[in-house]
Amino acid sequence: MRVATLTKYNLVDYNLSKITNDLNRASQIVSSGKRINTLSDDPAGLSHSLGLKSTLANIDQLNRNIELGESWLVASEGALQHTQNLVTEAKVLCIQMASDSNSAVDRQSAVAVVQNIRDEIVSLANTQISGRYIFSGTETDVKPFELDGTYNGNDIPFAIRAGNDSLVQIGSDGEAIFADIFTTLDDLGTALQSDDVDAINTAMTELDLHAERVSTKISDVGSKMNRMEVKKNILADLSISTTERLSEIEDADFVEATMNLKSVEMAYQAALASSASIMELSLVDFLR
User: Fold this and answer.
1) Which residue among 42, 191, 223, 234 is least enclosed by CB atoms within 10 Å?
2) 102 and 95 Cβ atoms separated by less than 8 Å
3) Are 242 and 256 contained in the same domain?
4) 189-243: pLDDT as tens digits
5) Does residue 177 belong to any structural domain of this protein?
6) For residue 170, which phi and psi values (nearest 5 degrees)?
7) Rounded (10°) angle between helices 197-250 and 43-97
8) What pTM was estimated for this model as a whole?
9) 95: Cβ–Cβ under 8 A, 6 or more apart, which residues?
10) Is the residue at 94 inside a domain?
11) Distance (Å, whole) CA 157 – CA 2
């Protein structure tokens, strides 16, 4: 029984199409270095790799959050340390002005010094990072303090996600830190202007409490910075292990892929030669 010419041609076309697809796939694997380039290459492997890529994207976002958090905490620490220095400066001034060696005129002159200290602390309380206020609670687009000490933020510290189930407060409720300091400095200015030594001593006691509270806040910021560093190291390790796992799933063995390409190329050339021989046959050849 003879095979119909059309059937032979269809078979040739099918074989050429299949081996051409195999050649294209082998070439793509070698050029890309990836054994999975389409869903048909490995559906289960592709699904797994997409999950790993999602994990890496989440790690990248968390790292960006941590970088933001670190910049906020560094700025907070700097502002608070400067505030503490200014509070200490005001306390030293109180000690001097409470002394009997200073006159009412001296105390009157010190009012301007207190006002300058107050203005500098207001400026520190309005510290910004990339246009966002760090002492305004979650109202980061609102300037927290007016010159008169009025607070415009809220009491909810701004926080970032530093892990899947971890929030770290990087902002602060400015009112809880600075408002009482402004009140004490205002009282100190009034006491100096009225030559009230007892009130100056009271302000000095209050300034001690403020310095202690600011110091506690600085320690809290420092502990959060350490926490950020730990989170960053954990994410770095997770990123490495996830990337390695993704590579195991996606990456091709270059030697194996090259050898396979050569093998497919040889099969392709053989198929072309065989197909050419068949296509050259005429109807007369089949009638013999």
Assistant:
1) 223
2) no
3) no
4) 999 999 999 999 999 999 999 999 999 999 999 999 999 999 999 999 999 999 8
5) yes
6) -110, -20
7) 170
8) 0.75
9) 204
10) yes
11) 86
